Each structure stands twice: as structure tokens, then as C-alpha cells.
Amino acid sequence: MMSILFKFLVITSTFFAMEGVAWFSHKYLMHGLLWSLHRDHHKKERPGYLEKNDLFFLIFAIPGISCLALGTLGDIPLFSWIGTGVTIYGACYFFVHDLFIHQRIKVLRNSQNWYLKAIRRAHKIHHKHTEKTDGECFGMLWVPLKYFMDANKNKES
After folding, report:
1. Residue 119's domain spans which residues?
2. Running along the chain, 157 residues long, what does each successive block of 10 average in pLDDT?
3. CA-to-CA distance for 77 and 60, rounded, in angstroms?
């Protein structure tokens, strides 16, 4: 029987590894081969609540669902824990990106938390670039250090 600590380490490691996957996918797939799906996230192309970019929610859910299914149905617990880490990251991505940053539901609008201010500012800088090849700040939970430094400096002022 696997220890609870090992399960925790697998789930936590997977969660943090997903930031690298998200960064790579955002920079090289969403701003590359799959720009046609991501473009409307940078340039509003038509009215409405949903964007083509929202399809990435489904695309990126597939590995988590697959791992959870394989772990459960195939009786391979390691895959269940990996799937749990992927799913927790997906939930955090939804809350941070869609709810907090883009305010699809108005929450934490006036947060003065230095961490939240840093990721919001980095994402805003990312969206200043409206073309496929332009851009910076492709991460979601960890952005370039200068944004954390600026947010922390403003907190102390």
C-alpha cells in the first residue's frame, strides 16, 4: 500500500509540473499551430460570452480525465493521483484565469494581494500583444519575477 505522503507528492508534483505544460502549450501551441482557436481570446472577433478559445478547456481536460479513468478502471492508482493533480491545476486555472483575471464572474475585483496583482498585471501585459508571434508572460500561476517584485514594492509603498 502506498503511503499518503507518496500520494501527496505525486499529486503536488503533477500540479506544479502542469504550470510548465501550460506555459509550453500556451507559447508554442496556442500562439502557434492552434492560434486559430486562441486568436479570439486576444482580439474580440464576435459578440457573445463564449470564445473559440474556450475549447482549450475541453482539450486540456482530456489528459486529466484519461488518467483518472485509467487509474480507476485500470486499477492503476498512480494514474489516479496524476489525474488528480492535473484536475486540481485545471480548476485553479479556471478560477485564476477566467474568474479572477478576465472577470467572467465578478469576484476578487479589488484584491490588493501582491501575488494576485502580479499575475493579473502579467496577464494584462500578455494581452497587449494581439498577434500570434508577439507576446510574453505565458505562464498562469508563476509569471516573470519582475511582476512579483513590482507588486510587492507597490504593497510596501
Report:
1. 4-156
2. 88 97 91 90 77 88 96 95 96 88 78 85 81 76 84 67
3. 21
